[in-house]
Design goal:
2 domains, alpha/beta, 7 strands, Rossmann fold
């Protein structure tokens, strides 16, 4: 099956997410970025926020208490908004290379604060035919239903006409279960290497 649409996660693939490093500066307990990221992925408060079930203030209050963060709600939300640092070097250029040959779209676990920054400051959403955020649809990866929504939006000839790229293995497994091709990659270098390996990018 020829790939028709390439579907990308944002944080960790095309965007630098500095959360694990920055959050570690404000915790009252010993931590490492890897430990923070693992707990972040499993955090029920963040999951609810990224599914659009909590407002930023509601999420911040629960998160600060549960994680023992040494910041006020205002301080925390102000810092949190900037944790999506930048579009990674080379990401825009890579997407420009791919666009003449494939449809491009994004599927991300995100929230209203980071999504607004993605749209208005980083301007990365302009690079895709469509972009789906978990908080908009009330579902988070790896829920199978969010991949079905992506398939409906894509309107491709078959599920395996989509190839999905994400930095978390659990999401890659879920995409494959939905019938998509999928690869775990982190950063633009690994993404470019995988695209070349799949014959999706010229030499």
């Amino acid at each position: 099956m020829q790939a028709e649409l390439l579907l990308f996660d944002l944080g960790g693939v095309l965007i630098e997410f500095a959360g694990p490093t920055e959050l570690g500066k404000h915790l009252r307990w010993p931590s490492t970025p890897d430990l923070i990221l693992d707990r972040w992925i499993k955090c029920p408060h963040t999951g609810a926020f990224e599914c659009g079930q909590l407002s930023p203030s509601e999420w911040a209050d629960r998160f600060i208490k549960d994680w023992d963060v040494d910041l006020t709600r205002h301080e925390f939300l102000s810092k949190f908004t900037t944790w999506t640092r930048c579009v990674l070097p080379g990401a825009r250029e890579l997407l420009d290379e791919l666009r003449p040959h494939y449809r491009l779209a994004a599927l991300s676990n995100s929230n209203e604060l980071h999504w607004a920054r993605n749209a208005n400051e980083l301007r990365i959403l302009d690079l895709f035919e469509f972009a789906i955020s978990s908080h908009q649809v009330g579902l988070c990866k790896p829920d199978p239903a969010i991949f079905r929504i992506a398939l409906e939006r894509a309107r491709v000839s078959a599920a395996d006409a989509i190839i999905f790229f994400d930095d978390l293995e659990v999401n890659v497994v879920a995409a494959r279960a939905a019938g998509m091709g999928a690869h775990k990659v982190r950063g633009v270098g690994e993404l470019r290497d995988q695209l070349s390996k799949d014959g999706l990018l010229g030499p």
